[in-house]
Please model this.
Amino acid sequence: MSQPVDSAVSAVRSYIEQHRAAFLDDLVEWLRIPSVSAQPGHASDVRRSADWLAAALARTGFPTTEVWETPGAPAVFAEWPSADPEAPTVLVYGHHDVQPAAREDGWDSEPFEPVVRGNRLYARGAADDKGQVFFHTLGVRAHLAATGRTAPAVTLKLLIEGEEESGSPHFRALLERHADRLTADAVIVSDTGMWSEDTPTVCTGMRGLAECEIRLYGPDQDIHSGSFGGAVPNPATAAARLVAALHDEHARVAIPGFYDGVVELTDRERELFAELPFDEQRWLRTAKSYATHGEAGHTTLERIWARPTAEVNGIGGGYQGPGSKTIVPSSAMLKLSFRIVAGQEPDHIEKAVRVWAAEQIPDGIRHEITFGAATRPCLTPLDHPVLQSLVRAMARAFETPVRFTREGGSGPAADLQETLGAPVLFLGISVPSDGWHAPNEKVELDLLLKGVETAAYLWDDLADSRRRAP
Model:
C-alpha cells in the first residue's frame, strides 16, 4: 500500500538528497563517454556507452539487462517485474547516443568533460538525453525506499536506443523484432522538455512527417529562350506554379483531401494552450523571423502543435551562376514536407499529393515524385488515466499545477505507439535554455532531481490507478 502523501513525499525527498552526490558522480562518468552515433570514429564509444548503461541498470537492481544489437549502434533493454501479477507494465524510452561536439564549436569547456557551474551541469548529453534517461535509476530506487517494496509497483522496462541522433534508421525493425519482450500498457518517453523552469508541462502528442521530392522534366536539354521560349512548357515555371498552388489565400493547404481525418482541437485544449505564458515577440526572435504567418483562425501555438502543414524545403532549376543565361531549362525540382496530426494517414497524404501534382503539371512536362519513409503522429487524450497519473506525479514533485503542450516536430514516439499498441506519454524536465544540439548544453540540477522525484511517485500512482479502475 502507498504511504500517506506527506510521509511518502518526505521519504522520497530524503532518499534523493542522501544519494544525490553518488547519482551525479555516476552521471558524470557516463557523460564522459563520447557516444556520437553520427560519426563512425565513435562507434566503439557508442558501444561502450551501451555497456556502461547496462551495467549501471544492473547495479540499480534490474534483474534483466541486455545490450541489443542492430545493424548500426546497440540499444539497451532492462526489465524489473513487479511482485504483483496484476500490475501494469510500463516501458520507458530514451537514447544514449549524443550529437557531435567539439570545444572549437563554441563550448566554454570540453563537451565530454562534464563541469558543474552554479546549479547547472554542462556536458554533451546532459539534457539530451543521458540526464533524462539516468534520472530513472535514482527514481526507481527512491520509489522502493519510500514504499518499502523490493520490486517496483509496476513491471518496469527500459529501452534506450543508440541511434536517435542519427535518425533512428533501425529502430522500427528493433521494435518489431523484440515486440514480444516490449509489450506494455503505457510508454513513457523521457526525451523531451518542459515549457520553462517555473511552468512544468506534459506533452500530449507529436506531429508526424511525410516528405517528398518532385522532379520536373521539359526539353531534353536546356534550349534558347529566344528561339523556343513561350512556345514550349518550362519546368521551372511548372515548379513555381506547384508552389503557388500549395496554399490558398488563408494559408490552408490547398491539396484536396489533405485535411481528411484531422482530429480538431477541443475548446478545452485551446483554452489550455492559451493559458501558457507565451511571448510571441520573444518566440519570433528565437525563430529569427519578423512576422507570424499561418493558417487563419489559429494561434501560433495551435499552428505548430496541432495543425497540419505543408512547407517548401527547397526549389531549384535552370541557371544559377553569375550573370544571365537565357534558356528554357530542361529540368527543375522542389522538396516538400508535410507535418501531419492525429487522424491523418501518411499513405493518404502521399496519394493526395500525387493526384494534386499530376493535375497541376501541364502537358509536355514529365514528373517523378519520390516519398521518403513517413513518421506517424501520436496523441494521448487529456482524460487518459495514464496521462492523469503522470500529471499527478509531476504536480506532486513540483508542487504547482502542470500544464499541457504538444510537440511540433516528429520522433520515434509514433513508432512506439503504433508497434506496441500502447499510449505514449512524455516525461521530461529539460527547458529551452538547455541548448540541445548546441554548444554549452546543460541541465538544471534542481529540475533533474524533480525528474527523479516524479518518477518515484509515478509507478505507485499508475499501480493505484489500475486498482481503482472499474
